[in-house]
Amino acid sequence: MSTPLTAKEIQDALGELQGWARDGDALAKTYVFGSFREAFGFMTRVAFEAEALNHHPEWTNVYNRVVVRLSTHDAGGKVTAKDVALAKRMERIGGVK
Amino acid sequence: MSTPLTAKEIQDALGELQGWARDGDALAKTYVFGSFREAFGFMTRVAFEAEALNHHPEWTNVYNRVVVRLSTHDAGGKVTAKDVALAKRMERIGGVK
What we know:
The structure is a homodimer.
Chain A: H1 7-15, E1 21-23, E2 26-32, H2 36-53, E3 58-62, E4 65-70, H3 81-94
Antiparallel strand pairs in A: 1-2, 2-4, 3-4
C-alpha cells in the first residue's frame, strides 16, 4: 500500500513540473510532438523508465500526441511519490514540452 | 481523401478478425497481455507497421492492456480499407488475443 500525497505535497510537485495538472485524482499532461515517430520514441524511452520504477502510466497516443495520466493503483488511484518520480523522468525525456 | 467502407464491407472485415467490434464509427479491440512488457512490445511492433502503412491507431495503454480504436482521419473518422489493413497486421502481431 502506497501513501497518497497531501494536497500541499501535490501542489509543490506541480510547481516543479511544467504543463502538468490535476485530472480528477491523477496527474495529467498532454505531450505534442512533431510526428508519430517522435511521440512513440518518447513512449518507448518512458516505457523503460516505467519498468525500472515498476510504476506504469495510463497513456493514450494519437499520431503526434501522447496524453498521460498518472495515479497509483495501490493507493486507491490517488497520487503518490511514485507518480511524481515518473512525471519527472517523463519531463527529462520529453524535453519539457 | 479516403473512401469509407460500406456497412456490408465492414461486417465482412469483422468476420475475418477476432475480437474486433464497431465503436461508434471506428473499429475497436482490447488486447490483454501477461505484462506491461508484453503489451508495450506489441505496441512497438505495431508502431513500425503503422509507420509503414502511414496509418496510425488511437490507442490507450494501462499496464498489460491496450485498447485500440481505428478510423481514418481523412475519411471523416469513418472506417476505410486502411483500418482493416492495420487491424490485420495487429492480429498477426498480437497472436489473435
